[in-house]
Structure formats: structure tokens, C-alpha cells
Protein: Magnesium transporter MgtE
Organism: Tissierella simiarum
Amino acid sequence: MDERKILDLIEQKKYIELKKELAQMNEVDVAEILDPLDIHTTLVIFRMLPKDLAVEVFAHFSPEQQRDIINTITDKELKYIVEELFFDDMIDLIEEMPANLVKKILVNAKEEERKLINQFLKYPPNSAGSLMTIEYVDLKKDMTVKDALDHIKETGLDKETVYTCYVTGENRKLEGIVSLRKLVISDEKLLIKDIMNEDFIYVNTHDDQETVASVFKRYGFLALPVVDKEHRFTGIITVDDIMDVIDQETTEDFQKMAAMSPSEEAYLDTGVFTLAKHRIIWLLVLMVSATFTGGIIKRFEDVLQSVVVLTAFIPMLMDTGGNSGSQSSTLVIRGLALGEISLSDSWKVIWKEFRISIIVGIALAAANFVRIMIFDTVGIWVALTVSITLLVTVVISKIVGGILPMIAKRVNIDPAIMAGPLITTIVDALSLIVYFTIASLLLHI
């Protein structure tokens, strides 16, 4: 459906035709069209939607639009939405709402749901427990396949997924899993215990969401069971929720790599002062760190005064060193995040980056030597000084860029912090020390 046509129908207030068109659309597309509209227009159209579609559209609204709708609709309308939302969507909604609206939501929830909500909200933020849902199909191992299929038909409509069913025993202990595919193709007289898989992957309620995301990526699951420390089955995490986590973690890594404090708010929805606060702390740290560079230049002031032309090559050496280090750190950070590199691979990383740096350094140094001799009116010893420094700088930069994220991981610091700006600051200081040391030796200053 063309979005422009829907917006035209809204503008022309052709609500009968609009209602027919929206009823045939996917809830994600409807939410995307309505979300940017003002609350009054959104509410008029929202109330026209079929009830089931309205609940699904509500779940895909932004927190701001959800907040405005809850403030505006009647308690009866809110009660229907709360009752029909999937449990994990309700938890997400409550976590985003201010206290007064949380109270309004809880008042309109069933008593048993209120207890469960309070239990879920006690899990640490960004943990598996805070992500999971209780909308799953559970079976008993003494059921027959026929009984299990009948149970799925009876209860599956209200579940988040029916593709994987979970077999529980005494005290809610998770004993096995069985796929819907396995149930459909098995003899209906067989018992669940005869066809269930007892060798299954699960996560703990207190596992970090990044750990959960890596399990999903490694095994390609659609859903993952969650158990507590007593191995009691508490819920499942579905792939749609973990996709949001992966996006969030990736965004956080990008922000850290750019030397900014992470923020979960969208760029255009974040205030200017908030964005400035997230950036200024790291900029101050890097600015203070950069004073070391100035101190190094002062220390070798006599070298610069003797051969003033050396000053002209400082920016090129520092930029090349910073860029070389950033290349290595970016690849290593991503490798750590994807599980392709582990801490035990530290020496492999150093050896690989050393070999790469030798190849890259020789190529850059040779090209730079030719460029200086042709285009710059300096002697051969100055050209050699700059070119040798370039080679050594590239070697140091790539090794430092490769090893610093590993060190950060070792001491339980996010490796993303050891990226671009911080690597550049460290490499700048090292490249200047190398430059002036080599200049002193070759030019006899």
C-alpha cells in the first residue's frame, strides 16, 4: 500500500475508505504511518482499527506515542490493550513509561499479571530475565503426541510462538524441548518423552543480553528458553526481541568507538544539552591526553629548531599512525564482539598485525620517500628520516591498535572504548617520540 495514498485519505478525512485500507495492512506499516502524526489525528484513526490490529499497532508505536495514547484513551480501552498485549511487549511498555502511567497500566491489568509484572521488573536491566516472555507452549512428558497437538490448538493462539514447545517436570524443571515439526510428523500415539530433545541450549535469567544475543547468532534460534539458578523454567526470549538488542548493542559500540557516552534515545529525539553532555566528557579526557603530545614536541624543540622542515611532516605521520591503529582496533573489536577472536588469541593477533604492518609500512614508506624526493626540496637524509619513521609508526600503530582491545577485554572493560580517538591519541605520542629519536640519530642533531 502506498503511504502517500494513506496520508492523502487522512488529509481528506475519507475515513470509511481509510479504515478498509488500513485493515488490510501489516501492523508495522500502520504504526510507521501513524507514529509521526499528532496525537489527535492518531487517536481518531487508532480507534477505527479492528481491535486485534489496534493492539498490534500499539505495540509498535514509539514510547512517546504510546504515552500520549495512554494519557488520552479511556480506562476501558486501556484495559483491552493491556489484556491483549503479549507479556514481553507489556514489560517493554512499562519500562518506558513514567510512574503515573505505570500505575494506570497496572490498575487495568489482571491481578495475576500484576504479580508477574512486578516479578519481571525485579530482574536486572539488560538481563535475560528482563527480555523474556511467558507466552510459550509447555507440555508434559507423559502426554501423547495427539494430546500435545490438541493442547497447541487450544492454547497456541495466545502464545508468542508455537514452533518450539517446552517440556517441564516437577517444580517447573525444564526437561526437554520438542519442535512443532517433530510433533506433526510423529506417530500420534508416541509419548512426548520418547521424541523430546533433552540436549538443549538455554540461558540464565541473570545472563547479560549481549551473551543472549551471541547465543542466538551462534545457533540461529527463533526462541531460547530461560531458566533460573535452580534450573526452573521461567520463560523464553524470541528472535524479534533479540534483534532489538543486537541493534542496541551495535549502536552502543559505535558510540563508544566515536568517544561518546552511549545513549538509547534516537538522535532527533535527544536534547542538545544531553548530546553535548555525552560528548564533552570524552573530549575533555582526550584533550588532556593530547597535552602529552605538546610535551613531547617541547622536549625535542632543539631538534625542530635545527631542522625546521621536519615540522611539515608531523601531521602526515600522526594521521597515518592514527588511521593505521584505527583499522586494526576496528577489526579486532568487531572480532571480539562476534566471538571470532578470544583472549587466548592475543599472540596470534600481535603476530598477524605485525606481518600486516611490515607489508603496509614498507609500501607507504617507499611511496613517501619517492614523493618527498620528487616534490619536496629536502635532502635525502630528511626523506629517509620521515620514511623510516613512517614504517616504524605503522608497525607500532597496528600492534597497539590490535592489542589494546584485547587488554580492555582482559580487565573487563568494553573493547569498543579502545577505538579511534583513544588509539589516535596514544599513537600520536608514540609516533612523535619515534620521529624525533630517528631524526636525532640520522641528522646528528
